[in-house]
Amino acid sequence: MELQEAKQQFIDTWGALGSEWGINKSVAQVHALLLSASNPMSTDEIMEKLVISRGNANMSIRQLIDYGIVYKKHIAGDRKEYFVAEKEVLKWAMKIAVMRKQKELDPVMDILKDISRNTEKDQTAEGKEFHKTVKDIQNLTDQLETITNKIFNTSGGDLLIKLIKLMM
Predict the structure, then answer these.
(1) I need a surface site. Which of 83, 88, 138, 156 has the fewest CB within 10 A?
(2) 8 Å CB contact between 47 and 53
(3) Chain centroid to CA 157: how far?
């Protein structure tokens, strides 16, 4: 398999995987393209390689920058904006995990707390059973949150990165 063919397969596969995870296909493909690129890329180059519109490219790049896994890169003498991806896999994976936790798990945890408070006084057998179930789920998610906060909030996750590298 030629290098360019392998890169294209990586981009296509990353885009499909992103869709499975609820991430826009173009966002995942831009990320894969920048991961596979050896040099910073401009919006025009990204559009050309992925055959996407300027709006789609800009929106995807902006989202990746918001995730903290793509950065703007200035090239002296050139007015265009260029972009590079964080190449250290553990760093960008952790940033994505933290972002997904904030976006997906934190709202659920808030709802569980509300439900637990609102069902606390129900003294029927069914009410007690439901409250216990919700409270058990809430306790588990609280413990998981404590663990993840300790792992991800230590110097930008440097501790976790070191631990994973030790295990490899």
Answers:
(1) 88
(2) yes
(3) 14
70 and 84 in contact (C-beta within 8 Å)?
A: yes
Q: Of 39, 45, 50, which is closest to residue 75 (Cα–Cα)?
A: 39
Q: Write out pLDDT tens, residues 38-89.
A: 999 999 999 999 999 999 999 999 999 998 899 999 988 888 999 999 998 8
**How long a stretch of residues is the chain?**
168
DSSP secondary structure letter of residue 105: I
Q: Extract the tokens encoding 33.
A: 């393209």
What are 70's two structure tokens? 């793509």
- Block residue for tokens 């793509």: 70
